[in-house]
């Protein structure tokens, strides 16, 4: 009786890759429209989720740095990054001999922040980060804008004073808001135009579970804080914490109200 030879590993990988979409009647059950399952599969892998989260600080990182963040080998990281790049969740940028990766845009950051909020709300939490955890919740970078308690507080203040108008997730800068920005932060409306990005956008904050301000305005305000030396990103590799100086805290309170009780 002839025994069938076991397939080689590469044959197994190839056959699995071809068969996987057929599982559970994938093609028969697929509906027209955006493929949510494909994006969810890319984000859902723990290593890829760790790499995407590391890129939430807005900095571009190399494959080696992302491998360290994910706790995997550089070879495995390269494989994951190829999938994320093909799925248009990250984009590479070559500088000299190095190849850096960053999130494709703030839409990806918004989805990740929303998923983090959902995970926190449903009790799927990792081990707390320790002493820096309160600082992360107080003020952090979300791609390129301010998030956390202070980010939510800033949007609340802008909305209460009619500097912006918000209806659900849509936010509009008012004429009074334009004057406020020009006078207090030297931000003009010309600085806020972008072909693929709205001026104002609501981003669901994972720790506060309320909205903070994203869009070109959110990015411009955060950039202005840094230029005025009111705030700076924590220098610790991979950290998303934003540290305000004493002067920065006073100026922030003067513009957007004191800290919440």
TrEMBL record:
GO molecular function: cadmium ion sensor activity; DNA binding; DNA-binding transcription factor activity; lead ion binding
UniProt superkingdom: Bacteria
Any single biological process term in GO: response to cadmium ion
Xref: PROSITE patterns: HTH_ARSR_2 (PS50987)
Domain HTH arsR-type: 28-123
SUPFAM superfamilies from the UniProt entry: Winged helix' DNA-binding domain (SSF46785)
Listed name of the protein: Winged helix-turn-helix transcriptional regulator
Annotated source species: Bradyrhizobium cytisi
């Amino acid at each position: 009786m002839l025994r069938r030879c076991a397939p080689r590993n590469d044959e197994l990988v190839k056959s699995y890759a071809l068969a996987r979409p057929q599982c559970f009647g994938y093609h028969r059950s697929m509906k027209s429209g955006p493929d949510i399952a494909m994006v969810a599969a890319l984000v859902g892998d723990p290593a890829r989720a760790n790499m995407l989260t590391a890129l939430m600080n807005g900095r571009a990182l190399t494959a080696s740095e992302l491998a360290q963040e994910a706790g995997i080998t550089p070879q495995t990281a390269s494989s994951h990054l190829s999938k994320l790049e093909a799925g248009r969740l990250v984009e590479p940028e070559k500088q000299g001999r190095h190849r850096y990766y960053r999130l494709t845009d703030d839409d990806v950051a918004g989805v990740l922040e929303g998923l983090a909020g959902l995970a926190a709300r449903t009790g799927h939490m990792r081990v707390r980060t320790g002493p820096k955890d309160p600082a992360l919740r107080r003020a952090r970078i979300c791609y390129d804008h301010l998030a956390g308690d202070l980010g939510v507080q800033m949007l609340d203040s802008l909305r209460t004073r009619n500097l912006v108008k918000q209806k659900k997730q849509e936010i509009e800068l008012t004429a009074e808001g334009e004057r406020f920005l020009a006078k207090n932060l030297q931000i003009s409306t010309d600085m806020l135009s972008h072909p693929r990005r709205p001026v104002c956008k609501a981003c669901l904050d994972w720790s506060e579970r309320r909205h903070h301000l994203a869009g070109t305005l959110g990015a411009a305000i955060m950039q202005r804080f840094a230029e005025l030396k009111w705030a700076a990103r924590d220098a610790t590799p991979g950290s998303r914490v934003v540290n305000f100086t004493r002067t920065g805290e006073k100026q922030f309170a003067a513009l957007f109200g004191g800290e919440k009780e």
